[in-house]
Amino acid sequence: MAIDLINIKERESEDDTQFVHAERQDIQINNQRIVVNVSGLRFETYIKTLETFPNTLLGSSNTRMKFYDEEKNELFFNRSRSCFEHILYYYQSGGTIRYPPNIPIEIFIEEIEFFCLNPELISQIRKENLSKPKEKDVLPEKLLRKRLWLIIEYPESSLGARIFAAWSICVIMVSITMFCIETLPQYSVTTITTNSNNVTTKNHYIKQEYEKSFFAIETACIVWFSFELVARFILSPQKCHFAKNLLNVIDLLSITPYFITLATKEFYNNEASSIEVIRVIRLVRVFRIFKLSRHSKGLQILGKTLKTSLREMVMLGFFLCVIVVLFSSAVYFAEFHLSDTQFNSIPDAFWWAVVTITTVGYGDIRPIGLWGKIVGALCAVAGVLTIALPVPVIVSNFNHFYQLETEKKKILRNDTEAGNEHKSHISAKSKVSPSNESKI
Where is this region: Disordered (predicted)? Predict the structure, then answer.
């Protein structure tokens, strides 16, 4: 009997030992960390965090071991780094996914499918991303106005729209080319006049034998620009939105100098005030080059990028102002004791500081002494570092808008193809129906 009790106690102690050993083993597994290498970028987390979702690729020990590298003792995936940060957050947060706005939605969804996350996340992300930020374009209700509006405003909608856009680009290029050519010496003449107050003014005129030709070409371009602007305004379904659109404001500014110049010449002839007004107005004509942004998605993306990165640009401008004042003061006092110094005051050194910070280095103003050169070298290095700071943010914003534009093109292309298939199906059905009626 005593022997049986001893055996029972030994078995109980063995069971307790096995239980404690198993419990310690579970604790070690739960506390065991795993390294995930995603295209060279290593992430480290606990195995128990991944096994919170056992039906996913990383949560299942069998599936994730297919990507295990024994030599480096890590999992390796040749996938998107920026996407995986949000994939890992899904495990760490207990099932919450955050869509990064700087990553195209199709790429992010592809990563979700690869790592076998909850399929409901895909529909949730599509609903939040596609329905909320993108507004549907408003089109005129009447069929004729709608077709004309598509031709004028959407160059990729049809062959006629592409021809219209190509012709508009040609007219813009002709106008800009003539604006530049009329300043060549063989087509222009420069006169210097002195008025009664001994004020000398330099005037620029087109030679008389070429004046009519330049005026005729300029008038033809203005007629087209005016027709285009008026047609857009008449056909526009939203007049208030049309007036607030920056591209339409640029169109208006591009034709305004022509009419102001005519009025100024008509009423004031060759008075000095008229010449000054015309000189300023001629400068405004250069804004016509921005009309190309209507037909260039790249320029539109660049404009949106600069608008989105305005905060970073302001920050960069503030840093540049601080550095300009700092190094202008430093180089002034470093060169102050030299007789042939070119830095007569701190404001005089502002130009040198800006040119040095941007690493242009014209060389018209430069330090001569040793300490001045040391300040110049530090100024150049500081400029490179300062300008490089906001560049990644601006590039990221540009990539974001570029991907959005690419996705929008795909959607429009798919809609167009679906519409063409629907039309061909209807036409085929209408061709078949008469034969069926004859049989009946």
Answer: 414-440
